[in-house]
Description:
- Two copies of one chain form a homodimer.
- By secondary structure, chain A is α/β, with parallel strands linked by helices.
- Chain A has 23 helices and 19 strands.
- Chains A and B meet through helix 7, helix 8, helix 12, helix 16 and helix 17 of A and helix 7, helix 8, helix 12, helix 16 and helix 17 of B.
Amino acid sequence: MTDLQKLEALAKLIRYSILVSTTEAGSGHPTSSLSAVELMTGLLFGGRFRFDADRPRHPNNDRLLFSKGHAAPLLYALWLAAGKVSEREIMTLRKFGSPLEGHPTPAFPYTEAATGSLGQGLSIGVGMALNAKYLDKLPYRTYVLLGDSEMAEGSQWEAIEIAAYYRLDNLVGIIDVNRLGQRGETMYGHDLEVYRKRAAAFGWEPIVIDGHHFPQILTAYEQASRVRERPAMIIAKTEKGKGISFLEGRSGWHGKAVPKADLARALKELGEVDRTVRGTLAMPDEIRPADRTSVPAASVAYAPDRPVSTRHAYGAALARLAVQYPDIVVLDAEVSNSTFAEIFAKVHPGRFFEMYVAEQNMTGAGLGLSLRGKVPFVSSFAAFLTRAFDQIRMSRYSAANIKFCGSHCGVSIGVDGSSQMGLEDIALFRTILDGVVLYPSDAVAAERLVEEAAKHRGIVYLRTTREDTPVIYRNDEVFRIGGSKVLRRNRRDVVTVVAAGITLHEALAAYEELKADGIPIGVIDLYSVKPLDVATLIEAARATGTIITVEDHYAEGGIGEAVRSALAGTGARVHSLAVRKLPRSGKPRELLDYEEISRTAIMRKVRELL
Amino acid sequence: MTDLQKLEALAKLIRYSILVSTTEAGSGHPTSSLSAVELMTGLLFGGRFRFDADRPRHPNNDRLLFSKGHAAPLLYALWLAAGKVSEREIMTLRKFGSPLEGHPTPAFPYTEAATGSLGQGLSIGVGMALNAKYLDKLPYRTYVLLGDSEMAEGSQWEAIEIAAYYRLDNLVGIIDVNRLGQRGETMYGHDLEVYRKRAAAFGWEPIVIDGHHFPQILTAYEQASRVRERPAMIIAKTEKGKGISFLEGRSGWHGKAVPKADLARALKELGEVDRTVRGTLAMPDEIRPADRTSVPAASVAYAPDRPVSTRHAYGAALARLAVQYPDIVVLDAEVSNSTFAEIFAKVHPGRFFEMYVAEQNMTGAGLGLSLRGKVPFVSSFAAFLTRAFDQIRMSRYSAANIKFCGSHCGVSIGVDGSSQMGLEDIALFRTILDGVVLYPSDAVAAERLVEEAAKHRGIVYLRTTREDTPVIYRNDEVFRIGGSKVLRRNRRDVVTVVAAGITLHEALAAYEELKADGIPIGVIDLYSVKPLDVATLIEAARATGTIITVEDHYAEGGIGEAVRSALAGTGARVHSLAVRKLPRSGKPRELLDYEEISRTAIMRKVRELL
Lengths: 610, 610
């Protein structure tokens, strides 16, 4: 068998597998999978893709991402053709408990990243390519299979522009231009020129081919491998449902499996299928990234009499910890002089990536970096991280290890006004399964929690404040995920105030004034919003009966609701001060009062409850 | 004074106003404002922009959107130059209570839409332009001032591609290419060719000019007005801080006001400023959109024995109500055969806009349409609406009247798996101030609530289910925002189960089985998740002491936390069943059981509590 004949035979086996597995499942996306069969067969088995299938996480493996995640049946069929998925296994597609889920997840060992929400794969590829070129300095190449429909997603163009800017000639996009979206034709159908000229305008090398013609496909990958200083975009004309006449190019088949009654007819069109043929992948060179040494970081050293913002401490912490945690990399969306990621960037420019005003791509790239073993700290204003909620949501399904930092939280940012205020970020990040949400109140806490975040495996969100706040903790204070600090406690406390960040300082001020009036209150710094220190909260609820939560955040989904959930069933009364009025420009103190989350409001609430 | 001399005089006055107002405020973005002075002065006062300043909402006014919202000082200065803001007023910039906020909000009558989160203005402009061209059929033109930094946002390219697709030759973008972003240079500096070739590749007519040269500016607007069948993008080379030598083109001045001590020096550079000069705007033609007639819609008519999905009922409701609510328009992101927006599209194609796989732009366009008096229903999978959280967040600050519909909520979508499951959408939409969150359990409720959404002024979110569910309500049942339905109640109820959507049916099934076992439970359909029917919940809590909430949604920020907040202080014990394990592919029933939100789980919980 010639190489081409082998590829044809493998393509046939893969088509066969796509059809039988989706028909067995009764659902799935066979037509979206069929259009990319030659493209992917040519990639994996054409001799160029270098991947040790026994060590999927080998640092020098080439990477293949399915941005069009609904082509999962193709992904699984490819690996069947590689001998890593059995015929029995592929028939478990979409079944409860099977690693072959409806869209790729890490349950399947050859899934690079969970996809299925369109337009995200190229950003993840950007992260992996950045890693190869600038961090690990390894020759592996990253390939991303893209659908044409999903090229409408702006996030793809963020990835495309950044990839060109960073000269990622180790990144290859392959657009499967099969003309048909879910509901009908895409905006451009088979007008390949549209894609070509846009890719070129954005600085990529376009390579236009017939996506079902193996010689052209192999040539394209070879051509792509020779492009320097810019990424390559293979733009392939394909037919959705290719290979089966009653599916090919027909509308109405998106996301539909061939019914059992029609399967035989479909398979017959494939002709004789050699179900024993298997393809081999080339092996990667045995190169590993240079060992990164770790030396202990300098200690935290804040003077107790000089207020410092937690956002500044965030940046300082990253710079300080960088030597001890050599896998830390930092990404920011053109606001590093506000988030203070710039402090790290100045001392470790090789580990900092300016991602410009494109938060979605920044998040996807962070995922890509985390999947390649880095520990990315990804920052912007808390308000602007909402731009990337879908990417944040999806990163959890890849078991990501990303640390997000949202600065400028709350109304207390002041005169810039509502558009810049993060008021829903705690709610957003609390929805992440097993996500960690940290909200330090002073510089020491911020530094300590940045380190806890670096040590923790999983998604962490750190919320930082714009204003300078007093340093209230000793430099050697210990903070842990799931902990809290009882700052004021007295047996006669009438109520316990639970706060974090800027409102913790308001609570402490309220404490002083109320104490002068003979009204003792407890104060807890709830720096770990998720997971919560439930034991301490229960203890406080038992002791004082009433809890007042105070947060510079909307009422829904934030600290108040989190505390109330933790205390459900205890009989504790929980009152919540939060942002309930339309926010606006004003000085921080004016806004804290206006939104009734200031020391004045706390005192008023305490007196009201007595 | 010649026209050009007048424009120069106005530009000087505007520069003066920008400087004094920001220096007085001690903050703001003067340099970002200064770079666009000629561009905007030439637009407003060059005779082409047609706007009745006494009737800012006039349907045939031209529209000007500041996508670079931080240039708010320029916006206010322009309107001072138009005689609509006094010198005293402009000195209130950023002060608490002033309509001149840090970034534009509707508090200022000439703000078209609240901006400040970059990359959103062009989508809003797309909505306004779609309205002019296809709905109102009015000749007004929409202009969007864009920053160069924000062209990195993918959402801009979504807007750009859709605008070309819809042939919006009544839309003009103006990119203020001042080279400097917040932290430093943009990716392309003053390389105008990059912007030109990208705009051209995306189907716009590029017009490259010197952004400080009035003759070129006026010619550009004239040229733009003659472009047919595609939008025009004016790409203007400018200097950040133009007009003041120590600001012009200098790094480090982003977001910094000129200190009081340096103001005199800056103003001196302007030379003699005629503070009395005022500009006039051309007036729009007195044309109004054709009256849209309203006729009563057909009645809701579902047979009680035929299950129908609420997602299908959503589409059917839109189609049915269209004649009675002529301002309803529908947008969808290429999944209308799944969200069933297609039912409306088939009967009212002129009021349906396919927005392709670009949810951010869809949302921004929805905002633009709502600001022009339409009632947009914007749909996609609930999971994919998270893609547009920043746009949703920002739309609230424009007092938007948008109705979002997220279909395929929960794990009960089944085998497609986690990427497609909306599990955090309730949390997301609950953070919207005064937002409405509705979760109908059957087709009748869905139809009724779509109508309530259409009648309500503000942001509404409707959550729909993929599965067919039984029709449990009479066709004439009344549903109201803030209401609920007590479906099962008995004096001996041991507990009340509060559910909605798919879990409401699980609760009803649990009721039957428990009843057979002699265990009576109450069941409440909490179809209005925000605002909640607090009175009914309190009543149920009093009656049974214990509430069990059940939701096909993550535990954080959803129904459980909402109910717990409503019952805070009542002593009610609230237990919550929700999605707490990593979701996966599986049949709906398997997943409901796996996540312990099924009838079996409800019964188990009830028995456990007894």
